[in-house]
Amino acid sequence: MKKNRQWENEAFFERLRTYQMVASIKEPKQLEIALSLKNNLAGVFLLTGHIGVIKGYVDLFKKHELPVFLHLEKIGGLSTDTFGLDYLAKVIRPTGIITTKTNVVKIAEKMDLLTIQRFFLVDTEGLDNISKSLCQIEPDVVEIMPARIPEMIGEIKKLTSLPIITGGLLFDRSHAVECLRYGATAVSSSKSELWNEVSSPHFA
Fold it and tell me: What is this structure's pTM?
């Protein structure tokens, strides 16, 4: 199982560098759209569902070898304590998790789950908060919200060498391209019309 997990993790980082677009899924009807575009996506972030259906969603994406991450604060009925995350890792078995909470990152890493920590950068205090958090524990990936302040990506890159995903308030391809030019590893978006437009082969 550990070997499979290692292969899955390496596959995600390779896809992240290659495709640079992550599909954020906020409603079930987007599941099929993401699957139809799987060859253009680094992976999917699930921001919808509840404990009764989420394993089915995860299994669907894993069957198609598309990395899948659960945003823990968006999934109904899922506990983020040690027992809940142990169940998540052993039964639901996503590629990893997304959370805003440093203590959840610590627990999830012990479960061999890839971790993405989401930060909201609303003022200069936000940079200090990111710095303090990363001093406590490093997730595998940092996600910065919103994406419409791309010049701040450079400031965050001074704090860490971790891959940076940015998302939020992306309305068209030019916004995504700008973020990547400022140093983001990838962008995330819930706008399915962007999923097919923003991938490495189209960037010139």
Answer: 0.91
